Amino acid sequence: MPIAEHSVKVLGINALFHDPAAALVVDGQTVAAAEEERFSRRKHGHRPVPFAAWELPELAARWCLAEAGLDISDIDAVAYSYDPELARPADELGLDDPWDHLRQTYAQRAPGFLASALPGLDPAAVRFVPHHVAHAASAGLAAPHGDADVLVLDGRGESASHLAGRYTAGELEVFHTQRLPHSLGLLYEDVTEHLGFLRSSDEYKVMALASHGTPRFRDELRRRVYATDDGGFHTDPIDWGSLVKLRHPDEPWPQDHADLAASVQKRLEEVLLDLAGWLHGHTGGRTLTLAGGVALNCVANTRIFDESPYDDVWVQPAAGDSGTALGGALHVAQTEGDLPRPMPGADLGRGWGDADIEARLTTARLPFERPDDVADEVARCLADNGVVAWFQGRSEYGPRALGHRSLLAHPGHEKNLERLNDVKGREQFRPVAPMVLADRARDIFSRGPLPSPYMLFVHDVARSWQERIPAVVHVDGTARVQTVDPSDEPLVARMLQGFERRTGIPVVINTSLNTAGRPMVDDPRDALECFGSAPVDLLAIGPFVVRRAKAA
User: Fold this and answer.
1) Mean pLDDT, to the nearest integer, of 186-202?
2) Measured between alpha carbons, how far is 385 from 521 in angstroms, rounded to an integer?
3) What confidence tens digit (pLDDT) does each residue in 4-55 have?
4) 146: left (phi > 0), else alpha (psi -120 to 50), else beta?
5) Backbone torsion region of residue 517, taken as left when φ is above 0, otherwise alpha when ψ lies between -120 and 50, otherwise beta
6) Against a cut of 0.85, is the pTM above it?
7) Contact at 8 Å (CB) between 475 and 211?
8) Cβ neighbourhood burial of 386 (10 Å; 0-12, 13-18, 19+)
9) What pLDDT does 428 receive?
10) Does residue 405 register a pLDDT over 50?
11) Is 18 a catalytic residue?
């Protein structure tokens, strides 16, 4: 997109803990945002220790600039979402992190590293933005509400793990921050690791496993994890092994693991409700915005919406650390006098023209077709119980597939849950999500906010529909819903409408287009590799379709 010469242009960078990302804000408008993993194909930016936590998003940053037709010399400021001046040594914070001193050195030298990665950048243009301020801005300045309260919770920032505040006319007032080592995010990471998952990556698996358990350890956790009367909280160290033993990788998931997951999940929800209640009591606000990795916990988000005093709750779709690239850029733009505008949606990543896609398909020497209406062709395949890889428009910013890089299937066949988990190579206790036409959502789903375009809340599935769409109903009778508004997503809406005409069901399974351990596909080559390696019946890529060859 062409950019006016007088525009204030801010490039945001996250490059310290995990999920390296870049974002571009011009005149307060979000132009582009993308995680580095979509380019590097390293999920969450993970590399062998000690280098796992400080990968520069070079490819994402260059793409953001190219998308706007800019050179790095055109940028007025680079926002780096961590301020080393606020950091303290790990041992002083009560953390056991042998690599922390290297992380701090890396952050201090970030301007030089960025200048080397982006030749032409003046290191003096780099602005350090406190990590939780960047998280807060990604919610409070990007939300569609104007003035709003903001609650940030994650593993850690420079020396804190939480921020409670309020945005008024673009200005942030901070009421409380929680000093480390007390951290709800690190608590959840710890139990994630103890249960045999990858910390700072697989916390959503614990949330899914929790629905299969009973919170029988909750009383023990209540003694160790609790809110304080100043707007913060306390987390005692916990010997997880005294509660449940480690599982051997070849063993099935034991019930006590599900019970521990359920206990931690319920206690997290209770403390979050206390924190939201304290903040509301301090401000009297009507709207709460959430960011930080803990805000990706859609079960907890729903309890905040249902049980807190707030009328509305908005969650940043890139709530994890990748979102601090956008938040840092919005914060610096605001300090430069721009009034940040709400983010236009989550589809802020790379897109591909029809000619580019056709050239890729031709180079791959695959037979492909251009149907009159790709949405209707996909609806026909889904109605026949096919699995479809859906690659359309710009890719999503954040961890949720929202109808741009998705695997789609029929929700009316219960075995499609197991089928899709097999396609993706992941645990069978994991649920898949429904996408539904926005005007039909209230007929099928209740509890939690509707519309829900970013799939960040859970909803109860009406009993009359549970037998009609069993594949998307989790063991506890809920579903993590994405609503689709035809004015925002006309192609996805046409596909849903075509599916409903054929089946009477306005719902389609939507899960991310990737396989276990790999980032979501981002460019046509990724889509072709995924299609070639997984048992998918149809690839819908731009206006074209590629069909799975039938066995002889």
Assistant:
1) 92
2) 23
3) 455 799 999 999 888 999 999 999 999 999 999 999 988 765 554 444 456 8
4) left
5) left
6) yes
7) yes
8) middle
9) 85
10) yes
11) yes
In the numeric block, the tokens 């089928």 are attached to 419
Residue located via tokens 């890719």: 395
Domains and CATH numbers, the chain: 9-137+322-335 (3.30.420.40), 144-315 (3.30.420.40), 354-547 (3.90.870.20)
Answer yes or no: are the C-beta atoms of 405 and 396 closer than 8 Å: yes
Residue 471 · residue 414 · CB < 8 Å: yes
Residue 249, classified by CB atoms within 10 Å of its CB into exposed (0-12), middle (13-18) or buried (19+), is: exposed
Helices (DSSP H) in 211-353: which residue ranges?
A: 218-224, 255-283, 298-307, 323-335
What the block records as the tokens of 291 is: 């960011």
Q: How far is CA 209 from CA 67, 201, 257, 260, in A?
A: 40, 15, 8, 9
Nearest to 161 by CA among 188, 137, 126, 140: 188
Give the CA distances from residue 149 to residues 95, 216, 291, 301, in Å, rounded to whole numbers and listed in that order: 29, 34, 11, 15
Structure tokens at 115: 């200048």
Pairing relationship of beta strands 148-153 and 160-168 according to DSSP bridges: antiparallel
Can you tell me which residue has the tokens 């026949």? Answer: 384
DSSP assignment, residue 369?
B
In the set 6, 18, 194, 410, the catalytic residue is 18
HEC string for 456-505 = CCEEEECHHHHCCCHHHCCCCCEEECEEECCCCCHHHHHHHHHHHHHHCC
Tokens (6 digits) for 401? 């597939």
Under DSSP, is residue 166 helix (H, G, I), strand (E, B) or coil? Answer: strand
Write out the DSSP string of 206-219.
HHHHHTTS--TTHH
d(CA 391, CA 352): 10
CB 436 within 8 A of CB 484: yes
